[in-house]
Amino acid sequence: MTSSETQQVQPSQRIIRSSSGPIGFVRSLARLLSGKPNVPPSLADNPLLETILQRRSVRTFDKREIPDDVFAAILEAGRVAPSTVNLQSWSFAVFTAASWRATFDRPIPFQGQRAIIVMGDTHRDRLVLDAFPQSPLIEYTLGVVNASLAAMNMNLAAEALGVSSVMLSETGRTGLLDAGYLKQTLCLPDGVFPLMTIIFGYPRGPYPPMPPKLPLDQICFESKYREPDRAVMEDWLAQMKAGYKASHLLSSFEAQLRLYVSKIGRAEADLQSMIFRDKQE
Question: pTM score > 0.70 for this model?
């Protein structure tokens, strides 16, 4: 690496390393709360850009119902999302508050009024086109990419219509980490795999602050990959922990990670059986 490249990797010297303890917590939380999107002044009034940059994951909803036409528009945004070769390799399990309770015997998380479980779906295309007979990992990856594009389309459409949302991978028994349970409960055929659950509702209270985002100089590179700056990553993690603690007074970021780890082994095995089904026969 040249000296000029070395200098480019060090833009984060302005970042203060977080110390442990109450003082470090307060400093990290203050940096988190001061974070804002960087919008060029010439584009500050662009409504679509504003919708994208001001969107937040909301976990507190009021009891207002989402009108059918509004929710239909959200679903339509998912239906017309872009996909590889227009394969549209996704399916959406759609729920009202009542149908969610009837299916899962519990309310929608965070008092949400509607929910969509977004799934990659290679089963439907296989009925007429087996495009990847020897490439299950490629087939799965494209399913993830395409369904994720549809999910983000629905997320942004909701935001534009005044409906807030949150995308979850762990929601008790209805997220990615419970893929096997969902396969059985929703009678999913081979080739259909749950990815995320989107909860929709009208927000109760103010929007949460923007989560800590890495600076562009840490996620963009030209020509060759640049190693991330450890100080920036440590500062990001400290802000993540501080933000989680401030919003979950009886829990911690580490506790949430332990919950994920406790479920990952089973989820990995379930997904392996869904993705590489032909190899295991």
Answer: yes
